[in-house]
Design a protein that fits this description.
about 425 residues, mainly alpha, 16 helices, about 70% helix, about 0% strand, globular
């Protein structure tokens, strides 16, 4: 029968078949991960609320660490598996186990309940990627299609937990390989992201939004000030990434036993929290970001948040790095504003945008997140700051499995981690 149909008609029918397939599976992915993301978000908020009402729980942080290691050992999963494993699965076909989803769910909640300093969006990438990969294996997809399902899951989960569906749709395609975009995943990622966001919104999950008001006019002088802030944030993003990587290396060098490592790290975090005298640096830092826009934070906030996060991740606690990075950028923006007298809300927002770009190497996603979080009025400032941060942050990044395909400085193919 096929030989009676012209080739051009066959090609059209094939494209329609493929399109319908991806629409169906992206809807499935968005529904499943949106539901899981809703549960995770409510659980996360509940754990945060319990910790804030019971500050003594920080004394159980070392014990909570032991529970995390025990859970990973019980399910025979390496404690170091995380976002890097998700990116490796896309690059080289590494096996991405479905059991990673409940482990990161449990591990992140334990970390936040007892006062660790991590975010939930990095956990979302692991959670969504694991579920997306599991759906791909369930329906016996080939390797390339499984990779698309992983990216689809990452977008859906990031959207459900961060509340930026446009940026989430692009992020999973952009973060894998710097310099190229996996456009074959565009339709699945977009649909899954929008559906997942719709599900979380339907169930009443609240997301952060910081609209900017009374911004200074975009002039030569204001653009120069923002450029200076962007350059400083690019340097700070390098420091943030290096601090995390070096802390992880030091913990693994001196504490080869994961139980000892996480227990000792928990003790350090417990003492640091007691010395600070509050829980400002525990958890994701979302409340701290809100405080930054009012300027009511001490000048050392940005450094302490980096330090708390580096020790938390270095010791083996679970969670993400993105919200702590945003908090760091916001706090540094406040410090910059206090020194220069430049607009506080704009400095805070630009600090967040520039840091996010510097640590993820994702300029398009950074711009989209800026527009979704802060509105369109500051777009020229965000665009300028993100451009400088992307160029000057070099080849550092949060994810060592991320590949730099093309140079940031020349039209050269370099293909390096």
């Amino acid at each position: 029968m096929k030989h009676l149909i012209p080739n051009n008609i066959l090609h059209i029918l094939k494209r329609i078949e493929v399109s319908l397939k991806w629409v169906a599976f992206s809807i499935l992915s968005g529904c499943v991960i949106g539901t899981v993301g809703t549960l995770f978000s409510f659980s996360f908020d509940f754990a945060t609320l319990v910790r804030e009402k019971n500050p003594w729980l920080v004394f159980l942080l070392p014990v909570g660490g032991l529970l995390i290691v025990a859970a990973y050992r019980l399910l025979r999963s390496p404690l170091t598996s995380g976002t890097n494993l998700v990116l490796s699965a896309i690059h080289s076909g590494d096996y991405l186990p479905l059991r990673m989803a409940p482990l990161i769910f449990f591990g992140t909640l334990i970390t936040h309940l007892f006062g660790g300093s991590t975010g939930r969006e990095g956990a979302a990438l692991q959670l969504g990627g694991s579920i997306g990969g599991g759906i791909g294996r369930l329906f016996r997809f080939d390797e390339n299609d499984k990779n698309i399902m992983i990216m689809c899951g990452m977008s859906a989960s990031f959207s459900s937990l961060f509340g930026t569906p446009i940026a989430a749709a692009i992020f999973s395609m952009e973060v894998v390989s710097v310099g190229i975009m996996h456009y074959s995943a565009l339709v699945p990622c977009v649909i899954a992201s929008l559906i997942s966001h719709a599900i979380t919104s339907y169930f009443g999950v609240s997301h952060a939004f910081f609209p900017l008001k009374e911004l200074p006019s975009f002039t030569v002088s204001s653009s120069l000030i923002v450029s200076v802030l962007a350059v400083l944030c690019a340097i700070l993003s390098i420091v943030f990434c290096a601090m995390i990587q070096q802390t992880v290396s030091l913990f693994h060098k001196y504490f080869t036993n994961p139980y000892v490592r996480i227990f000792f790290g928990g003790c350090i975090l417990m003492v640091m929290t007691l010395l600070v005298g509050n829980q400002s640096y525990s958890g994701s830092g979302l409340a701290g970001i809100a405080a930054c826009f009012s300027g009511s934070i001490p000048p050392e906030t940005f450094f302490l948040k980096m330090l708390f996060t580096a020790i938390t991740l270095g010791a083996g606690y679970k969670g993400g790095e993105i919200l702590p990075a945003l908090f760091t950028g916001a706090a540094f923006g406040v410090l910059f504003s206090s020194i220069t007298g430049f607009s506080l809300p704009l400095s805070t927002a630009v600090g967040m945008s520039a840091i996010f770009c510097g640590v993820t190497n994702c300029p398009i996603t950074s711009l989209l997140i800026s527009l979704e979080l802060f509105g369109y009025e500051g777009m020229p400032y965000f665009l300028l700051a993100i451009a400088f941060s992307y160029m000057l942050s070099g080849y550092w990044g949060l994810y060592q499995s991320q590949k730099i395909i093309y140079s940031k400085y020349k039209t050269d193919y370099i293909n390096k981690k």
